Amino acid sequence: MLKVNNITKKFGDLKAVDNLSFEVNEGEIFGLLGVNGAGKTTTFRIIMGLLEADEGNVTLNGKKIDYDITDSIGFLTEERSLLLKMTVFDQVLLYGILKGMEKDSIEEELDKWLERFNIKDYKHRKIKELSKGNQQKIQFITAIINNPKLLILDEPFTGLDPINVEMFMGVIREFKKKGSIIIFSSHFMEHVELFCEKLVILVKGQVVLGGRLSEIKKKYRKKNIIVHGDVEVDKLMKIDGVLEVNKVRNDIEIKIKDDNVVEDVFKYISKCKNITKFNVEEPSLNEIFVSKVGESFDK
Amino acid sequence: MTNKLKYLIKISLNKKIKTKWFVIVNILLVLLVIGMVNLDTIISAFGGDFNEKTNVIVKDNTNEVYDLFKTNLGLSQNYLTDLENVNLSKSEETREKLIEDIDSKDVVIIINNDDTNTIKAEIISDQFVDTVLYQTLTSAINSSKITLSMSKSNIDPYELASINAPVDISRNILDETKEEEDEHKSFFMGIIFPSFILPFFMLIIFLVQMIGGEINEEKTTRSMEIIISNVSPKTHFFSKIIASNIFILLQVFILFIAGLIGILIRKYTAASSFSLGSEFDLSSIWNTLVSSGVSERLIYVIPITIILMFLSFLAYSLIAGILASMTTSIEDFQQVQTPIILICLFGYYLSMLAPTFEGSIFIKIVSYLPFISVLISPPLLLLGQIGLIDALIAIAILSGTIYLMLKYGMKIYKVGILNYSTTKIWGKMFKAIKD
Question: Nearest C-alpha of chain B: how many angstroms from A297?
């Protein structure tokens, strides 16, 4: 289990991370969300031991993370951390050796992953000759080459097309099944929503929302009702508890304060003509994120 | 961790050596060194009249001057020049015939009687005559005129011989060691400077830029974060220092081998080649070293120089690595490295001047200073201007500096390699030392 205990990190007067705590168990995927400069990368650096927290500590299975256990960690940084003049093989070999692996097993794993990502012809090509997407694949391979127990992925889907995003997600799910602890950050909430069990949202280094995704959605009382038919927007807006009414393509999206408003809306809709759709939906993570981050900035 | 260190060193070395540029540059370097050692042979191989003697043809219409001129020219040659490439001959041809037959290497001297001035002379040449040769010839003509005039004035032959005889000047320098040093100072500096100081200075510049470039490449690509998350900054730092020093020593070895090849080629071609002078003659260099007593000092000058060279490479690579860790791009590093280059440049110029200020306390103190002692101490030690103790003090001070750089520099490096901010660099360095 990865345990982050009340870590705080200051850079001068700026608190990059403020009393952050969370736990991630084996086989769990944890999302660390936040706008740019929220403290995500600083948190990852503290977990990796690249930065020392001013307060608090981080443990993996009860042990402080140091060079004795970093061999079992995989780390993908937000920027391309690749030496562009090297060939794919030499680059993966370098990072593999630094993870304490043997040359033969690195090559075996590399061949497997290159085949999986459909880039086996690039094994001896220089990294600078590859496209951004393929460079990202190589970077991802360097992070997982050692079959890590803890996999830290900082914006792993940057520069990837939807097919390759799906491919990466498949691999991440495989590591989850194998029992790896996975932490990742992304600006794309739909990616986080798809496979994160737990998450925290950081704003200026502070947690504004955290916990299991299902519980977060439950706690977030606002809901959306999607209606298709002839309805009058003005009358909908007059219903107590209706926050906003928007036209989304051919449908009407009604944002409501909480579950109790559903009945009142339904009473009105039932009187309208040509109603073919009435769906009560959970809010998207993106909506929760925008709402929570916006609230924090307003404060 | 040892395997990781070894691998990082290997990768760092491979990046430098397994490139086509390393091969190309070193082939050119070897050719350049061999060429420099055999420059005179190369020049003469392309043709030229370096061995052709100048023919001085004298048409003595007085029938009295030629023998005197011949004698005086011999005396002038001894004092004014080392010229051995002069053929002196007498001719009975007419002036017109001599001018008609004149060659590019001929100098014709027509000597005639003169009512007022005893003799007069005309020097005719097809081309410009070397200044030294011209002065030698005019000096010999003037001396001949004086001798002739005195002989015509009925001066006693013994007295005349005494007047014409050169003044007996004996050179006597009381401090024998000083005499020896003065005579050979410029000779030795002429050897030490191109063979040691200049290559060393260039290698230092190369070393500093190489370390800065490599560290900054890893920083700008952020691969530093992956590397440092797997190996300690200390291991990473040492890998860079060791790899760079091995590479530089390899360059020293290549230069040395190139020099040896050049000398061997020179030895084989020496018999058939023209020599520019005694300073290029290897056996005469050794003879001078032996005769001056300097060869005896080589027993300790060579090991001291090697130790200072190793330690200085290490010191320069440490300071370059520490400074490079605080910069975020190669452009930043080029600015930060300026003080190192200036210090090295200061040592470089001082090494040229130092031997001429013998006994200077300033020079002695400067020869102790780390980073530049390697450029100043060995030449002074070779010339006997500083003692073995002075050189050992320089080594001790340099070793102490290296220790301090390792102790405090490591703190800076640890903070620096993950620093991506360009502001308050020096402040952060001092804070890292305090922390």
Answer: 26
